[in-house]
Structures are given as C-alpha cells and as structure tokens.
Amino acid sequence: MPIDEKKLGRDILEKGSILIPGAWLFIAYYVFTGNQWMTGPFSLILAGAYHVKGWDGRHMLAWGIGAMTLAALIIGGAQWTANSIAIAGYWLCLAGILRMGSEIMTGPSVKKAEGAGTKKSGGGNKEGKKGRRPTR
Amino acid sequence: MNDRFSGAAPAAALALGVLFVLAAYYPILAPLQDKSLVFARGDFTTIGGNESGAVRLEQTLSTFSDGSGRRDTNRFLLLGGLSAFSGWIAFSDAQFNSALILVSTVLGSAGIFFLARRFIDDWRYRAAAILLFIPFYFLNLWSVERIGHIWIWFTYAVFPLFASIGFSCLESRKDSRLVLYSLTFAFYGAIPHSFIYLGMIHGLLAAYALSLGWGWKSLAKFVSVPLVIYLLLFLPVLLAATAIEAKYPVEVTKYSFTYLSNNGEMARLLTFTNNWWPSLDDSRVKSDWAAKGSAFGIFILAFAAILLSYPVLERGLKALITISALWMMGCMFVAQGTQNQIVKWATDAIIDAGLGLLLGPFREWARISLLIPLFMVIILSIGLPRIKWRFAAVCTLAALIAANVIFSPSWAYLEDVHGAVRMGDEFSRLGTMLPKDSKVLWVDLRGKGLPATSLDGANESVRPPISNAGDTYVYPPIIRTIRVSEAPPGLLEALNIHHIVKSAGTRSDDWYPWMACSDVGYLRLCGDGKGPEPFRIYQGTILADDADVLSLSYAPLGGFAPSQEMGERAAYAVSGSRAQAVGTGMREVHMLEAESAFTGKRWRSERMGASNNSVVNFSGVIKATVNISRGGMYRIALVGSGPLVAMVDGVAVADADSMDGFSHGGPIYLGPGPALISVDGKGNGNASLDVLWLYEDGGNTTIGTLFKSAEPPPASVLSFARKSPTRWNALVNASRPFLLGFAEAYQPGWEARIIEHGNVVETIKPVQLYGVMNGYWINRTGNLEIEMRYQPQDMFETGLYATFATLAACAAYLAYAASRGG
C-alpha cells in the first residue's frame, strides 16, 4: 500500500534540515536554563514554521513522535531532561493532530493514497441513512 | 477455517483476558470466597462482620450522612445504594465491593470486545487486540491506583462499554439505544467525578456525530436527552443537596492546586506515574524502567498508529481517531496541573479573580488521566490494524503491554495497598457482642491499627470499622481527645456512649474503672451496663451571641474538673452565634480562646494540655470585645502566665501567673452592651494566655461551681423510639423551657418537629452540642410529642417519585422498542 512514509521521511530529512537543528538547540537552551515550559510554545512556533513551509500535520506529528521517543530513551536517566523533551514532543504531536483535524474540515491536504477506503472500514453516517454502520 | 475462528477467537480472547484480569485481581476479589475478609486501607475501607452489608445500609440511608457526621455522597450513592440489596443477598460490605469490581470488570471487558469488533475487521487482529487491551486496561497503574476510590473506578471500568453503547447509538440512531445509553450515563455517572468523565466521553461522541454530518437538531437531541434523564433520575439527590445547602465543588486555593499537581510532570504522565498521592513507596513507582519505558512506548505507538494509518482511513474513522487523539491530549494537558505553566497562569488568574469555585471540579488534576486508556484503546483499535506493518506493530504492542503489566507496580498495589485482609475471630465476635443501636468509642490506639493478616500471610496493622463497633463520631476535636485520654463519665453519657473498645495491655487498662470489661482476644470491650439514652434534658443553659462565645449547659459539665483540658473542650457544648434571651435560671458565660478571640500583637504556640493544645504569647496588651446580654455581677477566670492582668473596660479584675489552673477575679458589675476585655502582659516577653472566661456570678462562683445547678430538671423524657435511621420519636414532659440533646451526629438537617394532634406545629433547627451532636432549644411545656427527622430525607423521598417515574417510563419504552424489534 503506497502510504507515503518514504516521502514523509525524506521530507523530514530534507525540509527539516534547516529548522530542526535550530529547534533542538532552542529546546536544549531551555532545558538547561530550567524554563522547561517554554518548550511548548516554542514547539507551536516550530509547527507554525512547518505550516509556512507547506508541511502538513503528519510532519509535525512525526517530529513529535521523534521527540517522545528520545525522551523515552532517556527516561531512566535525567527526569528533568526527559520531561523537557517529552513536553516538546507533546506540543509537536498536538500541533500535528490539530493540523490534521483542520485538514478533515477543509479537505485533505495529504493525497489520498491509492487503495484508501477500499477496506471494509465503514463510511460516514449521514443524516437520513439510518442503520448504516459508520465504523466497520 | 476463517469462518470457524472469526467468531470463536475473539470470544476466546475475551474469556482469556477476563480470566487473566480476575486472577490478577484476586487480592480484591477474595472476599467473595471468604466472608471474613475486609478491606481496611485508606479510603478503600469496608465495614467488618457478617451483617456489615445491612449495617452499611443503616449507616448510609440518610442522604449525605453516614451516621458519623460526615457528609458522604460518594459512599452513599454507590456503596449505600448497593447495600440496599443486603435484604436479599447476605453479603458483607466487602463482598458487595468485590462483587462490584467483578461485575464492572466483566462489563468493561465486554465493552472492549465490542469496541474491537466495531473497529477491527480482521478477526485475528481483533482477537489479539481484545486479548491485549483487557489486561492493559485493567492492570495499568492508573486503573489499579484508582481502585482505592472505588466509586470512581467502577465508572472507569465501564468506560469502554459506555463508549461502545454510544457508538451503537450513533450508528443506529434509534431512540431505544439513546435511552439505554442515557440510563448507562445516569447509573455510572452518579458520582460527580464520574459525571465529568462520562460527560467527556459524551462530548467525544457528540463531536464524532458532528464530524459525521449530523444536523444540529439530531445532535441536540443526542446531547440533551442523556442529561435530562440524568437530572430526572437524580432529582432526589439534587433536592437533598439543596436541602442541606451542599456546596459542590469545593473551592480551591493556589496551594491546593500546586499540592495536587505534585508528580504531574509530562514525563511522569507518559509513564502512568503521575498520581499526586502515590500509596506505594516512591522508589517502587519511579524506578522500574521497564514499566516506565513500556508505558512511554504505548503512548508513542498510539501516536505512530495515528501517523501511519491516517492516509488510509476513510473520513469517518479519520475524524474519530483525530477526535480521540485530541481528547487524549486534552486530558494530558489538564492532568499536568500546575506543572503546566499555561494551566498555572490560567488558574492563578481565575483564583485571583475570586472565582476559585469554578475550578473545584478539576482540583484533582491527575485523575483526568483515567480517560486516557480508553482513548488509547480507540486509537490503537482504529490505527494499528490498518497500517502497512500491522503485524510488527501488534507484536510491538504485545511486547509493550506485556512488559507494562508484568513490571508494573500495579501488582504491589493490588496486594499491599488494596488487598483484603483477615482480621481474626475477635474482630467478628466483637460485632455480635454489642447491642445493635449502641454507640461505641475506640480508645488509645494512638493511631496504630489492629493486627491483621494479608492474603499471603504477612502481618499488618490496619484500622477498619466493625459492624456495630465503628467510631460513633468521627472527626470533632472532643472525640479525637477522648480517644487518647480518659473522659469523664458525664461526657460519655451525654454522648450516649456506653461501650468502649480498647487494645488489651495498653496504658488505657486502668481507664474507666466504673465500666465492666471483658477481653475479646487482643481487644477489650468495656460497658457501663446502661442502655442507649439518645435523648437528654439540659437545663440552666447560658448563651451569649458573640461569635467566639459558646453556650454552655450545666448538667453534663458538672462532673468535669474544669482546669483540665477536657473541661474546656466540653465547653464546646453549644457553638455558634444563635441569639437567645437569657432567661430565669440561666447564667451568661463567655469563653474566649486566646488564639481566636483576642486581637493584638501575639503569636500562637503549641502547648500540650492547653485548650486546643495551643496558647498565645505576647508582650503588650491583647484585647477582645464581648456583648453582654444581661447586666449584672460578672467574674473572670483565666489560665495564663506572665504575670498577667485581666481588665474589663479598663478596670483590673483578675491576675494570673500559672498555666496549671484557673485564676479567678471579680466580681464586677457590667451593664448590657459591649464590654472590652484586655489582658496586659506587662511587657514580659514570655506572657502567655490560654483561655479567659467571663461569667455571671452567682455568689463567689468559680469555674468549678459554675456548672452546678440546684434547680430541678425542667423536663423529663418519658419514652423514645427509633423509627428509621432518619426518624426518631420522643415523648417529653416539660415544666419549663429546656434544651433537648439528641445524641446523633450533628447535622444541620436534623430537625425537631413538635407534633400536636398529628400536625407539626413547630420545627426547630439544631444547635451543636459538644461539637458532635444535636441540641434543640424548646420553649414549650406540658406533654410534648417530638419527632426528630433528618429533613433532607424528606426531599430525597419526594424526589424518588420522579426517579421511579423516569425509570418506569424508560423501561416501558425499551420494552415497547424490543417488542417492535428495536
């Protein structure tokens, strides 16, 4: 199934190459100065930058997952650092999912992959179509 | 092959999952097997004894009152309600709790089964999901910790079923489903916390319906019908809450927010360890990297499921997975509490604006994380089976859940924190040795518990109540005091306490020599041989109307040595500022606690044996104003050192230089109106004052003789009867106005109703006697028929008509719909 994971990964590696090192430096600064809460708003700014660059919610979510994974890997060590990175991950995930939600409302910005919707995964339960299972 | 297993495999997975969880829950289900087991730790405490189910019913029948003076909505609504079955099922209180856990676990597992069936098409992945989600849902640390608050946990357990019924309701759009959904909402949302949780799931379903393109009319119906049915079903409770002017939620402060946000950091949230009040040793919660890492991994996998499945989801599921994720992240946002600086700014601003009451429902931030496992189940059910590498993803999930369950502190919680214990034969015997309506006091346990044995044979120390031997009154200072020191006979009689239970072989062995004691194992039961005497007549009562002045009664205090702490504690006979004309035979007394009644430069310090265990130290002059109701000759008695000089309106009346007893001074004439009391420390930096009394003089009256009365009693109690836990009757013959004491735990809702010819001619509200029980000023004479009624129960019983009518209408509609194939 041609889900665009490869494209997604390539986008992250290529388009994020400029922003991301700066982002992590920024986060690291706040981690080491103790202002952990700033990682949240900063992540939103980062997400906004992604938006300007034409990225979609999945990119932000992917970076959020990356941050959370990093936090998970160091959870046995410094709680403080893990917490800061986890907060950044949270905000990136939130920004991504919000963006994805807005895409549902305004129409998909991600190209519908071939084969999507062919699974027996149900359909919308529109007004007047009683009895149709929406989710199976 | 597929056909053969497609139905059987998920059902087998359900059975296996449930069995696994029930096996893990054995420590909390064991009472079903052994009736002698009790729950005895923290809030998860049940009443012991074979008849404890019925005792629980007795205790909780009065709305919002558990019979001990506590307003206890949670236990009333859930455990009190369950105990209503005690007439049909001879269960103990602990067995009702275990049965509740068992049933809720099965129902919740069925809910997970239905969710998986709804979202997962491939029977193999569906079976795997059911097998994984059930142990995860019930054995994650959030779930197991919350068992301690079973009135919340039992709602948590059925979240999946509730959500499943909700999805079914949205899918079918049948009114009968909506009624079923509404009834589930009402029953499991009975407790305010649970209402909020189910309300959030209801909101998720409404958002999902909106995303499906529902019209506003349909949406409004879906949103409002459950709320209307909820209100109708709970009209009795709402009416009763109004009757006692119950305040919910509790107003919060910045401090309480900060305290309750302890452990709310994001990293702890992501590892399920954000409970603000962990009951286990902290090292057991924090240090297990496998449990923490796997919890973190489950979160990451959930987000990955969203990321990777998103492109292949059709619009409905795409909307649902997005909404579920947003709801989950909303919970994560709030659950951090003030660890989240945005929340902190917002709450600080709201509290600074004096609107702290609005934040009350959210005061226990961490508990909102209870919703996260449900959202995870929905997200993973939708996402994982649809991604490209679903087999690997499900295997990863299996490994993570297995690690999380195996290494979780949940097992320790189940065994060491919540598990049932065996109290021994003495414990049960004691319950049967006491008369049914007796009031009992446990003394001299010094905060230690009683010996108990856990299921694995370990010796423990716990403190559960016993059927008939629970503490009569719970929190008031006077009770806390007499638990650790010997109380005078008059006080015990006034409180209608005729039995004492203590541990054998302690310092209290010599206490209460007038009582006959017998050993019951390691316990010692003592009694004075008298029967219950819930009604007592007080006379010569004195009252003033200053906020810090307490009204006193002669009779119960006569046996006190007033220089002792006990005497002064008992002075809390009638508290409050209820104005009452000082009549013939009454004496006006003002008692001024140094730490509360006086103003001026002073500081409080602890002093054992002092009134309230505290005194104030000062060097200059401290002052208080009292309002004299009746002019006459007054005297002063005070406990203080320094030396001190006590003055009234600038005239020196008494000196004191000892903390060991009262110093007396006066008399001095005082006219009606305010009088300024000042105590001069003479510049001595070590001046201390404990308490000062100003009282009408009857001729060289001292504190020791103040409470003696030579007058005959103004009334006598001819008979009394207990009709129900919320209704008593008494016949009283009175020759003068009198104060009637009623030894049930004080609640403002307890009314005295004077009955004449079958009609209520006067209703009298209680004042507080000794800080624990009810007293009524009755200004009538002759033969009086008096009914004591817990008034909120009237409202409650009136509201029950609405409840039964609503239930009948819902049942009739469901039956009608079923008959038509709906």
From the spread of the alpha carbons, the general shape of chain A counts as globular
State the secondary-structure class of chain B: alpha+beta
Mean pLDDT of chain B: 81
Backbone structural class of chain A: mainly alpha
Question: How many distinct helices of chain B?
Answer: 30
Note down, in words, how this protein is organized.
The complex is a heterodimer of chains A (136) and B (822). With 136 residues, chain A is mostly helical. Chain A contains four helices and no strands. Residues 108-136 of chain A have low confidence and may be disordered. Chain B is α+β, with helices and mostly antiparallel strands and 822 residues long. Chain B folds into five domains: 1-157, no CATH class; 249-416, no CATH class; 425-472 and 497-531, no CATH class; 540-706, Jelly Rolls; 715-790. Chain B has 30 helices and 27 strands. In chain B, the strands form six sheets. In chain B, strands 12, 13, 14, 15, 16, 17, 18 and 19 form an eight-stranded antiparallel sheet that branches. In chain B, strands 20-21-27-23-24 form a five-stranded antiparallel sheet. The longest helix of chain B has 29 residues, at 791-819. Chains A and B meet through helix 3 and helix 4 of A and helix 5, helix 9, helix 15, helix 17 and helix 18 of B.
List keywords for this structure.
heterodimer, A: 136 residues, mainly alpha, globular, B: 822 residues, alpha+beta, eight-stranded antiparallel sheet, five-stranded antiparallel sheet, elongated
Write the layout of secondary structure elements.
The complex is a heterodimer of chains A (136) and B (822).
Chain A: H1 5-33, H2 39-52, H3 57-73, H4 79-106
Chain B: H1 2-24, H2 26-29, E1 37-38, E2 40-41, E3 44-45, H3 52-60, H4 73-82, H5 93-119, H6 123-139, H7 141-146, H8 150-157, H9 159-172, H10 175-188, H11 192-211, H12 216-233, H13 235-243, H14 254-260, H15 266-269, H16 282-286, H17 289-309, H18 315-335, H19 341-352, H20 372-383, H21 390-407, H22 410-417, E4 421-422, H23 425-433, E5 439-443, E6 450-454, E7 459-462, H24 477-484, H25 489-494, E8 497-503, E9 516-520, E10 523-527, E11 535-538, H26 554-557, H27 565-570, E12 589-593, H28 594-597, E13 603-606, E14 614-618, E15 621-628, E16 632-648, E17 651-670, E18 673-680, E19 687-696, H29 703-706, E20 715-724, E21 727-734, E22 738-745, E23 750-756, E24 759-764, E25 767-769, E26 773-778, E27 782-790, H30 791-819
Parallel strand pairs in B: 5-8
Antiparallel strand pairs in B: 1-4, 2-3, 4-6, 6-7, 8-10, 9-10, 11-22, 12-19, 13-14, 14-19, 15-18, 16-17, 16-18, 16-19, 20-21, 21-27, 22-26, 23-24, 23-27, 25-26
